[in-house]
C-alpha cells in the first residue's frame, strides 16, 4: 500500500514498506534482512508522484 504523496501540490514521492520472505520449508516462511535480499525483481519502495492543486497566492 502506497503512502500519501509527500507534497500537497506539485511533484513529490510516495513510499511503501517492502519485505522479502524466504520459504524455509512448506508452511514455514522467514523474513530476510534487506541487505540479503536480491535487488533484482524486488518491488520499488518509492516512486515519483504529482498532485495538482490551486496556489494559495492566486486567491
TrEMBL record:
Residues 46-59 have a biased composition (Low complexity). It holds the Pfam family TSP1_ADAMTS. This is Uncharacterized protein. Residues 34-59 are annotated as: Disordered.
Amino acid at each position: 500500500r502506497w503512502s500519501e504523496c509527500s507534497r500537497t501540490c506539485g511533484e513529490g514521492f510516495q513510499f511503501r514498506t517492502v519485505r522479502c520472505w524466504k520459504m524455509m520449508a512448506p508452511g514455514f516462511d522467514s523474513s530476510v534482512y534487506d541487505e540479503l535480499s536480491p535487488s533484482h525483481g524486488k518491488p520499488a519502495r518509492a516512486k515519483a508522484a504529482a498532485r495538482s492543486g490551486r496556489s494559495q497566492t492566486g486567491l
